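Please produce the structure of this protein holding iron/sulfur cluster.
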Amino acid sequence: MTATSTRDVAATVRQVNQLVAAGADVVRIAVDSSQDAAALAEIRRRTTANLSVDLQENYRLAAEVAPHVDKIRYNPGHLYHHERDKSWQDKVRYLVEVARRHDCALRVGVNCGSVDPAQRARFDAGDVITPMLISAEEHCQLLDALGFTRYCVSLKDSDPARVVTVNERFAAARPDVPLHLGVTEAGLPPTGITKTRWAFEQLIGRGIGDTLRVSLTVPHDQKQQEIAAGRQILADIHAGRMLNAVSGALGGLNIISCPSCSRVENEAFVALAEQVQAMTRYASAYPITIAVMGCRVNGPGETDAADLGLWCGPHLVNLKRGSQSLGAWPYDQILARLKIELDQLIAARQQ
Ligand code: SF4
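Below is the modeled complex.
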């Protein structure tokens, strides 16, 4: 996925081509506005890459982007934000009609941080897997009923063990539906690669998964690391080189961070994630999760499940303890504030 601003056509085309040169078969671009969609048209003219687009809340943008891409990813949990009086089923019918008209595939992209609220409300708060699963299944059923067959599903979580469980369950229920695999917000390399590898070994090793993405928090000009890591993991699995001993690396302090995309609010985000990792090293033995997210689109929701969460705004970084907001601080002050919270959390757990 590109991390450049989609409206910066030259930089985005450069990144698309860089990813393709590194071995990417599909490149995804985020589109949040008509301006982004206009830029996408120009990007399409300048590259022959197989392009996918990531729609967020504004599902109607599908009509503007579909002529320029091969696949549209929509998130069932985001279909609620616009036109609240309209059912999600009607919105999916619209997406199918657009996809058909422009010969596009669809991806039903379910994400742990933005699960359909109607499904989440039906289950115990501790059960994060079932709402994701039911949401994916009901979208498949509707697509099937509409006779639309060019679709795949993804079920992503920042916890590799949950990625394995939810994908195993989905594959058992719907073996006919292609699955796109990913550990979302896997974080900085090398830990981000280790988490992803562990999940992919379990799934691909059992024949589950058709496409994949490795999500790493790396600077824009190093996004090809994601492709190299994915290719290496695949080669190792096919050669039987499994890293079964990595589970130890998944215990203790867990830093999850998003891979960044065109929605990042401040380019200092990647450096901040690296600083958080360095600053928190002293706490590596504690089973504490810290989430670092790049924007307001997914940041607030996808930090809820972490013990401590940071999400970036243009000038301030928001700090949370669980789902509780603690305030926002400038980029050069947030680490000190985070350390106070982390020390308090460690002290509370030692009592
Ligand atoms: S949290 Fe925001 S910046 Fe990070 S990958 Fe998700 S949408 Fe992009």
